[in-house]
Amino acid sequence: MTDQDLCIENVTKTFGGFTAVDDLTLTIPDGSFFALLGASGCGKTTTLRMVAGLEEPNAGRITLGGLDITRMRPYKRPVNTVFQSYALFPHMSVEDNVAFGLRRKGENRAETRRKVAEMLDLVQLGQYGSRRPAQLSGGQQQRVALARALVNNPEVLLLDEPLGALDLKLRRQMQIELKRIQTEVGITFVHVTHDQEEAMTMADTVAVMQAGRIEQLGAPAEMYEFPASAFVANFLGQSNLIKAEVTGQADGHVTVDAHGNRLAVPAGRCRVTSGTALLGVRPEKLHLADGPDAVPSGHAAVQGVVTDASFTGVSTQYLVRAPWGSELTVFVPNSGIANPALPGTEVAVHWSPAHSFLVGS
Amino acid sequence: MAALLPTASGTPAATEIPVEPPAGMRRRKWIPYALLAPGLLWLAVFFVYPVFQLVMASLWDPSGSVETGYTFAWAFSNYADAWEMFHVQFLRSLGYALITTVVCLLLGYPLAYAIAIKGGRWKNLMLVGVIAPFFTSFLVRTYAWKAILSDSGPVVDFLKWAHLLGPDGRLLATEFAVIAGLVYNFLPFMVLPLYASLDKLDVRLLEAARDLYHGPVRSFFRVTLPLSMPGVIAGTLLTFIPSAGDYVNAQLLGGPNTQMIGSVIQSRFLVVNDYPIASALSVMLMVTILVLVTIYVSTAGTEEVV
């Protein structure tokens, strides 16, 4: 905890009868790359707009470095935003767009010019200063929007779906670029996105939001490996979730009954330890074997029939129908040795219990 | 001049590749001309020819008359005579038009802004309110103003009661009445183009300005106003040009001391029958407005206009 942390305390925001943000409490550490991840309408953009000052919370407090900014006018906050639509001023050159905030802050001319040039270089638009935004491509406009916000050296930079309008390839490139810039300038980035891969690629900490609340918060790998709920398990990557009844606990494991299969999950990977639950395993952690005999010892296994095999290049994705009717997704890396299992083949799907997790249903 | 139209939007895509039109398209090159023809014909008959006639008439020998007929004589002295006789009315007209334009802009901009930005679901109703006066004739409305401002009318009564006007004070036949009438009559021509350009304003740009340390006043002058310049230019032109040439307001609401050049031209043509001077005045007015507008549009900077 350092002085410039951004704290959101018990913040609620309603629009008419709709609660967009519901008693949200969140601390975003100084200098971190923080992603707010969620489907549209989950309240992530509203949260961002409240930090920017473009919306006022109905209840709660927002502080930045201990200073209460809840009701501070947006133009007085040490916070800048990269808008989803970029919102570049069409009547100004790229340079004037970037200098817009600095001029207001009363920087002298030479200093402004130097900073603008430096910032345009940072986003690799050094030669485009005199152009109008309409003369730039989407990716270039996006970088102007970034430069325009970043040049003011804000305490916190807010990014509202900044890459949403870009094509996939450019988006990947900009993700790496943004990450590089954040490391370089060391400013706190709060990044709102609905793209889980983007959030995981870029952020140190991801908060998954749903219905105005935080569902889970943590480092991407940590959340991916051990999601807090079925929602997170499905929203962050793919998961096979099998309905199971907890039957008991024995030497560090929780035992469950899943459609007649007795399976065990390490106790440390269980969010619930009684009643009906969902046993989850990521598709890439499932393996296929020809039959029960070929399952390595210590692995949990269920029998099934391959219903579909699709080759995607790096892996083959199988759908295996379990005896209880639902289908399991299995990713088998394409390391080029085994022949693919054809649809209709009887297989055993097995996994290491250490890779499974148990969440509430 | 395309920038004058508040609806002209956007710059063309930066990378437009010229494509050779297919043969079938090329053969129909005459179509645009065919579409232009009726309008051009109309303008040629009812605009170009009359203007030509007017310029010719302004150079007729001033010693002629309607009875004896006129002869063409390159009589440039008509212009000097016209200026000599009527420069007061001429300059007064430009002055009134300028004041009218400024007042219309000051009244019209907040109105257009309120309708476009804050109008919400009342937008259309409020626009109808702006246009509603057009359902009645210009002349009838100006007569109504004459009644409202008359010496025994409610406005004068009130002002006398409030001691803002002396016991012998009047509004009719004053500059105030003429300019008030002009402002009233031309206000919609200011509001509509302003509305059109403000309605297109992306309010997210105002959020961006606020985010970049600009308070409401600064945001207005650095973002809203520059982006609404097409509307300001179109609105001021649509107000200034017709009010400079207007004679109805001066005629009905004014007196001898508020006569405008439009009234002079009208009476020279139709009452005094002094065609050469009337024509010279008309040409002077036209050329002056053209020059002023050209200077205005080029300095108001279509550069800023997107």
Computed over alpha carbons, the radius of gyration of chain B is 24 Å
The best one-word shape of chain A is elongated
User: Which structural class should the secondary elements of chain A be placed in?
Assistant: alpha+beta
**Low-confidence spans of chain A: pLDDT under 50, at least 5 residues?**
none
Helix/strand layout:
The complex is a heterodimer of chains A (361) and B (306).
Chain A: E1 6-15, E2 18-28, E3 33-37, H1 44-52, E4 59-64, E5 67-68, E6 79-82, H2 94-104, H3 109-122, H4 138-150, E7 156-160, H5 168-185, E8 188-193, H6 196-202, E9 205-210, E10 213-218, H7 220-225, H8 230-235, E11 240-250, E12 253-258, E13 261-266, E14 276-281, E15 287-289, E16 300-311, E17 315-321, E18 327-333, E19 346-351, E20 357-360
Parallel strand pairs in A: 3-8, 3-9, 6-7, 7-8
Antiparallel strand pairs in A: 1-2, 1-4, 4-5, 9-10, 11-12, 11-14, 12-13, 14-20, 15-19, 16-17, 16-19, 17-18
Helix pairs in contact in A: 2-3, 2-4, 3-4
Chain B: H1 23-26, H2 30-58, H3 77-118, H4 123-131, H5 138-149, H6 154-161, H7 175-199, H8 203-211, H9 216-227, H10 229-245, H11 248-253, H12 261-270, H13 275-299
Helix pairs in contact in B: 2-13, 3-7, 3-10, 3-13, 7-10, 8-9, 10-13, 12-13
Fill in the keyword field for this structure.
heterodimer, A: 361 residues, Rossmann fold, OB fold (Dihydrolipoamide Acetyltransferase, E2P), 2 domains, six-stranded mixed sheet, 8 helices, 23% helix, B: 306 residues, mainly alpha, MetI-like fold, 13 helices, globular, ABC_transporter-like_ATP-bd (chain A), cell membrane (chain A), ABC-type putrescine transporter activity (chain A), ABC_transporter-like_CS (chain A), translocase (chain A)
